[in-house]
Amino acid sequence: MSIVDLASPLVRQVVERPSLQTGEASIALGSVRHRRLRPCANAFAYSSYFLRLPLRELHHALGSARLISHNRWNVLSFHDRDHGPKDGKSLSEWIDALLREHGVEDADGPIWLHAFPRVLGYVFNPVSFWFCHRADGALRAVLCEVNNTFGECHSYLLAHADGRALHYGEELEAQKVFHVSPFCRVEGRYRFRFMVSGTRSVMRIDYDDDQGPLLQTSLCGTLRPLHDASLAYAFFRVPLFTFGVIVRIHWQAAKLWVKRVPFISKPETPPAEATR
Predict the structure, then answer these.
(1) What is the mean pLDDT of residues 252-263?
(2) Is 155:128 a contact under the CB 8 Å cutoff?
(3) Is the Cα dihedral 119, 121, 126, 131 positive or negative?
(4) DSSP codes of every residue in 101-152
(5) CB 232 within 8 A of CB 7
(6) In terms of pTM, does the model score above 0.85?
(7) In whole angstroms, what is the distance from residue 230 CA to residue 173 CA?
(8) Sign of dihedral through CA atoms 51, 55, 56, 59?
(9) Looking only at Cα atoms, what is the longest distance across the chain?
(10) Whole-angstrom Cα distance, residue 99 to residue 105?
(11) Which of the ends of the chain has fewer CB neighbours closer than 10 A, N or C?
(12) Residue 6 above 80 pLDDT?
């Protein structure tokens, strides 16, 4: 019998019957999947969870839940300095300035950040997603904030140059300019698809190098209200989750090294903090 099976009937009832309100912060219970196609096949999938937070109302987004805190230690927590400029300053001001810098002037509506929380004070976010909406609710842009294990960060801004909204499931592209894995060159392009609707969130990133499709990845989850019951369920369902993220990254790298996948030295980091 697993830890989850030992959870109280009340916890299971709350988790299995989501009742989200519009504009409510939430936690998504789901999975991460990754598949490498060549020069040798390698695939993995594991359970995960992530937060969905309203950036413009972040000061009160976590509500009355006791198991999660903002900018202080807790079982789960969200810290401003883990994102954006990483200096602890207002994230909404930072993203607004970055959008304006890249010519996106009308993303003045809600901004939702999808990211892993700190677990017992630790987090590593391989990628976080900022969904930037217009005042009428249409999705205007998505910022994909990517971190590598060398302590570097770069963001890809996805937005149409003519100002039209992004649509559910639409494929968006960005040229790869940032080194992430020592087993992939900085070349080719990413293909993104976002399917966020109701209580379901799916984010797909496929990577094509100069020879064609190489990686297929996804992060998905079912959104639940950010209550102590759902937080406890997530914590015990995937114990020490964020510690496992960094361990799994190095374990998969070791497997690729054993399979003699060519190792690529790290190039210089791009000078700009974001590219479009």
Answers:
(1) 95
(2) no
(3) positive
(4) HTT-----S-EEEEEPPEETTB---SEEEEEEE-TTS-EEEEEEEEE-TTS-
(5) yes
(6) yes
(7) 34
(8) positive
(9) 55
(10) 7
(11) N
(12) no
